[in-house]
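Hi there, hope your week has been kind to you so far. For a while now I've been wondering how a particular protein folds. I'm sending you its amino acid sequence along with the backbone structure tokens. Could you read through the record and tell me how the tokens relate to the sequence? Take your time with it, there's no hurry, and the full record follows here.
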Amino acid sequence: MQQSEYDLTIIGGGIVGLATAYTFLRRSPSLSVCVCEKEATVGQHQSSHNSGVIHTGVYYPPGSQKANNCTKGRKLLLEFCHEQGVAYRTCGKVIVATEESEIPYLNTLAERAKHNGVSIQPLSGEELKKREPHVRGVEALEVFDAGIIRFKDVCHKLYDLIQSHDGTVRCGSALEKASYQNGVWSLSTSTGEIKTKRVITCAGLYSDRVARLFGHHPSLQIIPFRGEYYTLTKEASKFCQALIYPVPHPLYPFLGVHLTRTLDDIVECGPSAVLAFSREGYTRSHISLGDLSEVLTSGRFWKMAAQHWKFGVSEMATSFVKERFVRAVQKLVPAIRSEHLIPGGSGVRAQTVAADGSLVGDFVIEEACGVLHLLNAPSPAATSCFAIAAELYERSENILHSS
């Protein structure tokens, strides 16, 4: 019979939730730990629907949660991969200014890299050609320590390790209700009742809804954005050697359409960033009337739309008109043509929006009623998963051991 009482229960079996469970089990082996995941297996959403890039911290303002956790997390992730035999490759990347107007922000990224301890090298247009012969740019930054990985491999390894450390992972176990009495949380799930002393939520696309089940009123709301990818034909894959990124727009938390040579030696191009009509809306036709209604009746959404409607219209057009996507890729690699691009996969980003309609870019953790809620964990959360897990452990340690 499956155990139903635990010291700690983690809601969400994505890469951060799994890394958190593993961290607790390693640091406090006497604790009984359970992970509840609503899907049939772990890492089914943002953890596996991404470009698989190991980030370095070059983009993030010094002192931000993203900067601190990315640089620490990358080191911890690679140590984990070495210990556990998880495949990855350090291939480096170039961030390319395709016109003179982008150079000032490229210089800002160079300054951030220095503050964050990221190894970089400025490249002239001629030097860029030696690194990526088919790329057009006036200047670039070479980021040496960027890499690629299959984050789903990390998830599956963590799943095995949690169980080997006497932890529990309940898949197909969706949280339906939570109540608190006499120092114990009672969690009603689709696989039965769980009693637990403490809870950490790492629910990704559902982080705000899950927080509300625990009586918390989160400061943020999830607005789902779909990122769509194309893959290059085998003939055209020669146009990309490793990772090719544009200079991102300084006002948005999206990195723009980029090219990634994956661990499987396939070149992906993307993503776009368009409003998804479902929190799991991986295709245009996937519509949840409940999810869509929640977005369209939200004042936060309309405030966000008023501030960023030009960007939204442009991204939507890029999604529906392939030639616009082609032109975005051609800004970086002019030789790529429409026939080189084959529709690929997609992902959904859990973009959080504040009350004033602003897009929240940094990681956000809120605590209420003894429960820690990871409310915002966008990219580079996968790279940062062990650093975020360590922070959740440290914030929980005194509470857990004083119980």
Notes: The two ends are 26 Å apart (CA to CA). The first helix runs from residue 15 to 27.
